[in-house]
Design brief:
Helix content is 79%, strand content 0%. It has a single domain, classed as Ferritin, core subunit, four-helix bundle (Ferritin). It is mainly alpha-helical and 174 residues long. Helix 1 packs antiparallel against helix 4. The chain is elongated and about 55 Å long.
Length: 174
Amino acid sequence: METTVDHIDDLEELFHHKLAQQYYIEEELVGTLDEMAINATNDRLSDGFADHRDETRTQVRRLEDVFAALDRPAERRDAPILDALEEERPMLENAIEDDDLRNMVYLNAGMMTERIEMTAYEGLTSIAGQIGYDDEIRKPLASNHDEEKAAYRELSAMETAADMKPLWDRLTPS
């Protein structure tokens, strides 16, 4: 896996770099989502993470299709923004004993990650359009973006859902 960036001269190189970072992110998130699905004690949250894990596997395959359309092997490049989130998660898990509070950490982490992914796909799609890439490259990116947006909306709705109200009431100081 490439960890440094030596030189980027043009949009195609930038696109490939960002695509490789997103590939890394999606592959890493399959495992993370699996862990959070197992560890979350709120059934709706756990089921949501499990569903999105399965969706993320499909997103990985779509990115592999984009690499193939570019006639390049799928490549992973470090994405420091994900690494930072992944570094924080176990620290919080170890510091928090309350299941409901840990669920809130997972909900927030999920929302943060979805925002990052939506922005990444927007950038990739924009660059692909500027380069003049056809639908074979742009459509899989748009599909992944749409799924990330839907996952964010689902998590956001969960934040105010009736089954989360007792949790908020218990965790909010009176």
